[in-house]
Amino acid sequence: MISRRNFLAxxxxxxxxxxxxxxxxxxxxxxxxxxxxxxLDNMTSLDPHESFEAVGSEICNNMYQRLVHPSLTNxxxxxxxxxxxxxxxxxxxxxxxxxxxxxxxxxxxxxxxxDAVFSLQRAIKMNKGAAFIIGQFGFTPENVEQWITVVxxxxxxxxxxxxxxxxxxxxCLSASIGSIVxxxxxxxxxxxxxxxxxxxxxxxxxxxxxxxxxxxxxxSVVMNYNPHxxxxxxxxxxxxxxxxxxxxxLLMLQKGDVDIARNLTxxxxxxxxxxxxxxxxxxxxxxxxxxxxxQSNEKLTNPKLWxxxxxxxxxxxIQQNIVPLQYKVHQTIVPEGFPGAIxxxxxxxxxxxxxxxxxxxxxxxxFTIKMDHYSAQPSPDIAQAIQANLADIGIKVELxxxxxxxxxxxxxxxxxxxxxxxxxxxxxDPNTNASVFCINEDNSDNAxxxxxxxxxxxxxxxxxxxxxxxxxxxxxxxxxxxxxxxQREFMQNSPFIVMMQKFETAACRKDVTGMRLGVLSDSxxxxxxxxx
Length: 532
What we know:
Strands 1, 8, 9, 10, 11, 12, 13, 14, 15, 16 and 17 form an eleven-stranded mixed beta sheet that branches. α19 (about 460-470) runs antiparallel to α20 (about 475-490). The protein is built from 20 helices and 19 strands. It starts with a helix and ends with a strand. β8 (about 210-215) and β9 form a beta hairpin. The chain is an alpha+beta fold and about 525 residues long. Mean pLDDT is about 95; it is low at about 1-25. Keywords: Periplasm, Signal. It is found in: Periplasm. Belongs to the bacterial solute-binding protein 5 family. InterPro entries: Peptide/Ni-bd, SBP_5, SBP_5_dom, TAT_signal.
């Protein structure tokens, strides 16, 4: 495995030279332009009410504000965005928000209550992948105009049929799906009844620090600063360039062709981590890496098989030998650092136990299966390690590498057998992960809600009941215990093999300051960026 990676590093010069020629000759050298090397292949849309991938949501976060957002330094605290204040009635069924009079869109127009109501209604009516985050409060395309309303020019009201806690509602509204768009601009660019979706996929109409200039899939994203926004630094344009190979990212950083490299693997990080010419920004984030076994495949439906795979994987070996600076071993669906998260790691490589479980499952002779994974490192190296681990218990894995968005598209179509992917949390509450893994109320192909479990045809009534009970529990201590119990049961008896939790690192040249990485993938921010 090491020799293969060294080979890739040596071979990277050819694609780098051809790619570097596409960069503006002086872009990275200019104080007012920031150039970032990053993998950009998992985006399918930059409409904030449709985007549901980590990088796309991050970019949307830099172009749009929400009513509220989590504090970057302490994500358990909620701060105002385009809302300056909020309150709940005694029953926990009516919530009012006062708009911030100073918030302005990139057009210069003020952010109004009408814009906020339109945006939340639009998210529900479009009913794209992330709509369930706020739809779980009972909002539907049929009732949303009745339950999310304008009180006056500076006030909006959300009414619920079922009481909920203010903090839980705020966490959900802080997700990217809660982004506020400018109604006038969006509807002027609507095509038929698409509510501007076609246009907003590659344009922006927000009040964040940055505005979209262009997006070329798997090539680049260019943003300009919003002159009416909060950004006051000296960078006027950000150019995100898709560079899939981390060795190329490192070389471009060293040559000064880019200011920041976002996807260096352990091999490259070792080169720059102690070099005074670079500022390293590092954050433990909510992304978890896992294998998903599609329950539509008869070979993968036996719980004894699920357990056998969990005992066959060499978690520590993969972490220590492939990604020691990028991931830590983590085996539960709620990321460490979240309220209610547990740090139990019951599984380790035990071939004797794994083989015995294969025999109990009636699969002692093994079988052949396909596993999809991202083509960008470190996924190929991890996939090869898993392939070798599972071969030891008779499972012959055929690896299928593809761009991130291609793997995601295949999973969303429920067409994978095994998929090695990542999942990032949407808001700072354990329900964000418990719900998508456990609450799959409609397992049919045409289901209205399609959580992560749905993608693998997985439905478990007991886990669903327990996740809902934990979500709705009012006593904080009891709620934490319920989530702990749920995680322990789920990790022992589900077709998901959670392996690791991610560290995000941005390697910046020493003249770059203010890069911010948050716990949530959509909270990485260029709001404070500057170049000396």
